Amino acid sequence: MFKKILAFFAAMSLVAAFAAVDVNKATEAELDGLKGVGPVTSKLIISERKKGEFKSWEDFISRVKGVGDNKAAALSSEGLTVGGASYKAATAKADAKADAKAEKAEKKAAKADVKAEAKTDKKADKAEAKAPTSTSAAAVTPAASKPAAAVPAVAAKPSAAASAAAAKPAATASKPAATASAAKK
User: Fold this and answer.
1) Which residues, 6+ apart, have CB-to-CB distance to 81 below 8 Å?
2) Whether the Cβ atoms of residue 41 and residue 33 lie closer than 8 Å to each other
3) Eight-class DSSP state of 35
4) Is the Cα dihedral 86, 90, 93, 94 positive or negative?
């Protein structure tokens, strides 16, 4: 009979060990018993709880120094709850991140489609510009048979380098003359 009672209490203690621990009701010893919560963290939780109960996991994370999203997820998996609720923001963030990634991929695909369409339009415009506008004999004749007046003059205007070179000898020629007139005085 004694062994049965002892076995009963051992079973009950195991059940109690795996039961959820509410951060607003747990003692310092219960908090210390959780994996990932040491004496310093449990004292921080108790001191923050004295200021007011934790309303949500976000409130708990913001008020307890050293607890972020990853640690909150780990504590929740160990059995810690806030107001009876386990931490679920990690999965919500992962879903939001996946949605943002899918949206970014859609935008990129749409941008590529617009770019391809613009490229196709540009090619069509070039092809249209190259095509003759009328089918008259003058438009169909080769360029060699065109009169010389129709061909634009390429060297009609001197380049800037040529005009600078032409101006340079004039400037150097006037310089000795100026020194010669100064020498006469």
Assistant:
1) 20, 21, 22, 23
2) no
3) T
4) negative
DSSP-derived secondary structure letter, 153? P
CA–CA separation, 67 and 45 (whole Å)? 10
- Residue 34 tokens read as 């959780």
pLDDT tens, position by position, 83-122: 888 888 655 556 666 677 777 888 888 888 888 888 888 8
What mean pLDDT is reported for the chain? 73
What residues have CB less than 8 Å from 35, skipping those under 6 apart? 74, 78
Global pTM exceeds 0.90 = no
Per-residue pLDDT at 109:
83
**Which residues, listed in sequence order, are joined to residue 85 by a DSSP beta bridge?**
82
Which helix (H) or strand (E) segment holds residue 22: the answer is strand 21-22
Distance in angstroms (rounded) separating the CA atoms of residues 114 and 95: 29
User: φ and ψ at 146, to 5 degrees?
Assistant: -75, 150
Which residue type does 75 have? L
Answer with the residue of higher pLDDT: 42 or 140: 42
Closest CA to 37 of 75, 68, 69: 75
Other beta carbons within 10 angstroms of residue 34's beta carbon come to: 18
